[in-house]
């Protein structure tokens, strides 16, 4: 039955355009997520990271102090009380924060909610992908300068080891090694870097067409071919690297933030982040995104983008919101 449904659904991953509703309650979640700059864009052909294991060699003298926090809201409480505090899951979003020696690695994944109508939990894919990324970092099985390989290896393990989830998600992984930030972004999650009160870099969004982001995808094993589905390879991720300095602020988030909060407002809210306020600032930004998502009179970034494509979608865009805030101390 599932096979028939999937073949007739067309582009399952296309996200529905919805107008804002009314917020029922504030469910603030602060998870323990599994525990002018010169920007160099990079494009690599991805190879298996299992044969290219490299141990981070950063020394304490050259490695900055990195303070990370995470906060999020599920769009609704369909699955009951969220497990975000223990498992890094926010609705259909997932995240991780990991460290190996002096190398810090963080990531987010936004599960595609369209699978739910076919009886599939979208969070199983996004959560599984992030957990495997976290496990690979913990074991040192990654190359600090190649976050794309980390995503590729995690995706490979997700596909080849039971239980194999069905679903799809975006993925954005950042690796901070010594004084360099390496990133791989697949889809419309993303990050920005602030320095001295202004944005010095923002990642590129990848979409096939409006509201249809690049994404990793696993179909049921009995489905032949992938015609009509959105599924992208890890090597299509947008890659970049840049030097980081003490005082830099990095915001990594799913599109629940970017679709509802303007870059200008993000800068205003994070202008005075200190080591002891990273978590509270992260919480406040998530609260702002949640409030604006359910404001039907708000001219959100999503509404403006939809208008450019001839789509009338006023107000905020209710969605899962996952934010990781990182301070280079």
TrEMBL record:
Gene3D superfamilies: PPM-type phosphatase domain (3.60.40.10). One of its GO terms (molecular function) is metal ion binding. Residues 45-66 have a biased composition (Low complexity). InterPro entries: PPM-type-like_dom_sf, PPM-type_phosphatase-like_dom, PPTC7. Its EC number is 3.1.3.16. SUPFAM superfamilies: PP2C-like (SSF81606). Keywords: Hydrolase, Magnesium, Manganese, Metal-binding, Protein phosphatase. One of its GO terms (cellular component) is mitochondrion. Its cofactor is Mg(2+); Mn(2+). The keyword Magnesium applies. PANTHER family: PROTEIN PHOSPHATASE 2C, PROTEIN PHOSPHATASE PTC7 HOMOLOG. Belongs to the PP2C family. This is Protein phosphatase. It comes from Steinernema hermaphroditum. The lineage of its organism: Eukaryota, Metazoa, Ecdysozoa, Nematoda, Chromadorea.
């Amino acid at each position: 039955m599932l096979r028939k449904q999937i073949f007739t659904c067309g582009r399952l991953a296309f996200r529905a355009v919805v107008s804002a509703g009314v917020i029922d309650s504030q469910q603030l979640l602060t998870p323990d997520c599994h525990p002018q700059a010169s920007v160099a864009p990079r494009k690599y052909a991805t190879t298996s990271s299992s044969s290219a294991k490299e141990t981070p060699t950063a020394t304490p003298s050259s490695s900055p102090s990195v303070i990370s926090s995470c906060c999020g809201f599920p769009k609704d409480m369909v699955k009951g009380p969220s497990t975000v505090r223990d498992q890094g899951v926010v609705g259909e979003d997932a995240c991780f924060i990991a460290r190996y020696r002096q190398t810090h690695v963080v990531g987010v994944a936004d599960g595609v909610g369209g699978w739910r109508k076919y009886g599939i939990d979208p969070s199983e894919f996004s959560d599984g992908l992030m957990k495997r990324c976290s496990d690979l970092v913990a074991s040192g099985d990654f190359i600090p300068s190649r976050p794309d390989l980390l995503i590729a290896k995690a995706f490979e393990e997700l596909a080849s080891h039971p239980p194999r989830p069905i679903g799809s998600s975006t993925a954005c992984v950042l690796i901070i090694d010594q004084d360099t930030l390496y990133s791989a972004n697949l889809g419309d999650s993303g990050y920005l870097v602030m320095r001295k009160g202004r944005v010095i870099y923002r990642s590129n969004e990848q979409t096939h067409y409006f509201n249809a982001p690049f994404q990793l995808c696993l179909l049921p094993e009995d489905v032949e071919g992938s015609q009509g589905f959105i599924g992208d390879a890890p090597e299509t991720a947008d890659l970049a690297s840049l030097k980081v300095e003490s005082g830099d602020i990095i915001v990594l988030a799913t599109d629940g933030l970017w679709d509802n909060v303007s870059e200008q407002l993000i800068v205003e809210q994070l202008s005075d982040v200190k080591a002891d306020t990273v978590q509270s600032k992260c919480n406040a930004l998530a609260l702002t995104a949640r409030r604006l998502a359910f404001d039907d009179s708000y001219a959100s970034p999503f509404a403006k983008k939809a208008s450019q494509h001839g789509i009338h979608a006023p107000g905020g865009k209710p969605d899962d919101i996952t934010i990781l805030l990182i301070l280079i101390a």
